[in-house]
Specification:
The protein contains eleven helices and eleven strands. By secondary structure, it is α/β, with parallel strands linked by helices.
Length: 264
């Protein structure tokens, strides 16, 4: 069985309580809000939680500083390769100076990612211009304001912002400003490029951990969380053509996947 909280914290809590009432053998929680909800709800139960797509499990209090479980929970992190992404953006946009990043102020993962980007950006000649939002309704105005200040947008894996990515892409396209993604699906729907991850790979990695727990091979409390190690370049030639940008040959040559259309 599966349920979608639609990024709503109250709904996430209800889903966790419902799973506990049904005495499930394991809860697989996708993304930080759902993972935190499941973790909190199962503390006084024997139900293990396997999380995935949690950028910073330590700051989310799902794991200890050494990576070991903070209770009967473990899983996988989709921590972004910040340095590789900045290096890629510099290659694609050699004259760019300011990168805009929109994020949810309530998501600890996004705040962690912002901090890492701000620390690394000067090494590549960039300045990070951030814009925090509270709800998806804030996105249109925040995007309009941000696009007036930057040379490009860099999208994270922030749940709220990703759900409004089509709006951001539409506004950026009208101003001929490229948007860089953080994973393959974002490139498919209109981001110019990403030095990112494939969530199918992350899902397989998470599934193997869940199988260990369900089979009794190990307890969730005995497995340190894992960070996905497979990152690659993904580019969209249709977006590049629309923006009048030529993607560097070395990136295209080594790309895991290039797309020549924009998915709806």
């Amino acid at each position: 069985m599966y349920e979608n909280s639609q990024t709503d914290a109250n709904m996430a809590s209800q889903i966790s309580k419902n799973f506990i009432a049904k005495d499930v053998d394991l809860i697989c929680a996708i993304a930080t809000p759902m993972a935190q909800s499941a973790f909190g709800a199962t503390k006084n139960t024997k139900i293990p939680v396997i999380f995935t797509a949690v950028t910073d499990p330590i700051k989310a209090e799902l794991a200890k500083a050494d990576g070991s479980p903070n209770g009967n929970t473990t899983g996988t992190s989709d921590k972004l390769p910040v340095e590789k992404q900045l290096e890629m953006i510099r290659k694609v946009l050699p004259e760019a100076k300011k990168i805009g990043i929109m994020y949810s102020t309530s998501e600890v993962n996004s705040i962690s990612a912002i901090e890492e980007y701000k620390a690394a950006a000067p090494n590549y000649g960039f300045e990070i211009v951030e814009s925090g939002i509270s709800t998806i309704a804030d996105v249109p105005l925040a995007a309009d304001t941000l696009l007036e200040k930057v040379d490009c947008i860099n999208n994270l894996t922030d749940n709220t912002v990703v759900s409004a990515l089509p709006t951001i892409l539409n506004k950026a396209s009208k101003k001929n400003i490229p948007v860089f993604g953080s994973e393959v699906e974002q490139v498919k729907i209109g981001c110019l490029a990403s030095m990112g991850l494939d969530y199918f790979d992350l899902g397989r990695q998470t599934g193997k951990m869940a199988a260990q727990v369900l089979s009794g091979e190990k307890k969730a409390s005995e497995i340190n969380y894992e960070i996905i190690e497979e990152f690659a370049f993904y580019g969209n030639s249709a977006v590049a053509e629309n923006l009048g940008i030529t993607l560097p040959e070395d990136l295209v040559k080594d790309a895991k996947e290039m797309y020549d259309s924009i998915s709806e």
